[in-house]
Amino acid sequence: MTADISGVPPSPRRGRPGYDQETVLRRAIDLFNRQGYDGTSMGDLAKELGFTKSAIYHHVPSKSHLLEQALDEALDGLAHALAAARAESGVTANERLRHAVRGSVMVLVDHLPAVTLLLRVRGNSEVESQALERRRHIDDALAEMVEAAVAEGALRNDLPPAMISRLLFGMVNSLVEWVRPDGRYDAEALADMVTTVAFDGLTR
Amino acid sequence: MTADISGVPPSPRRGRPGYDQETVLRRAIDLFNRQGYDGTSMGDLAKELGFTKSAIYHHVPSKSHLLEQALDEALDGLAHALAAARAESGVTANERLRHAVRGSVMVLVDHLPAVTLLLRVRGNSEVESQALERRRHIDDALAEMVEAAVAEGALRNDLPPAMISRLLFGMVNSLVEWVRPDGRYDAEALADMVTTVAFDGLTR
């Protein structure tokens, strides 16, 4: 650390690592994913970031504030991808669905830690309940897109559309279990593979 | 509660609900799934079962003992289903794989709480690490079955077999997110739907 021109060290930063809000959020999300949100205390966060227990409150108003930002990041991304797919005109319902699946995979890979956190939320607090409510709206909208693709005759009609939707997005969501940010597949390649398996099946 | 013939209440049970070990295990698994294993204390377990904090230790030697029993239940079931599918003779590699998928879905539905707990394990203790190790062996064996089905020409060869295996069992495992023990689909019907979607695809 360098002293400022007056020779006095800049006191707001004295003894504290110079993390910005974005870095604090990233490190917090990783910690929540490693040991669970409920299992992470403000003390754990302070330790992770190298703050004292009292200094952490200057950087983080509360644990739930960080959780809310993380869940909003994931939900905003998914909602935006979905809205873009639904807004397409001049294409079939099946193409809109394919684009929604592709878009969901891209958001999942690009915001992997935040989406991982979202998919583990169980509704144990107000912030979590609101996130689950938003997630339900997204799931409902995706289920409607599946229904439309079945109705236009593009998708098989021997299974309930609600079941198709659950299995399809269950496969998409399962990516969080093994995709790594520095992994060998990029988002586009993963999106291609998921849509190929889901729409065309494994049989040669 | 009735007194015994001597007129003295049977002291080992006095004031305690008459749960057997099986019931204790079921209630513990449900509690672990609701609030997380790490987030559940022996005190929480005692409260859930209506025991005093000191009485709980007469019924449950430790939290990790219950976790181990639960994870073994799930892993034994999956390993058994897999071994049965692999041992089949006179069928193709693809048929053995289909039977392994069906068997996995059946075990998942029949042992839903135990498998749900297994899929949430992150390796935070010796018991969890050992369970993850067993799970890896099962995943490797399933991946080998996928490879054999690709090699015999039954499954598409334009995707890495490891990827096919992950997406396939990602779809299977995602069932724990929404299947309910008293739900509208039985294990056989779910196994049929999952294998149909996975092998034949969604496209009509």
UniProtKB/TrEMBL annotation, chains A, B:
Keywords: DNA-binding, Transcription, Transcription regulation. One of its GO terms (molecular function) is DNA-binding transcription factor activity. Residues 41-60 bind DNA. Gene3D superfamilies: Homeodomain-like, Tetracycline Repressor, domain 2. Residues 18-78 form the HTH tetR-type domain. It comes from the Bacteria. This is TetR family transcriptional regulator.
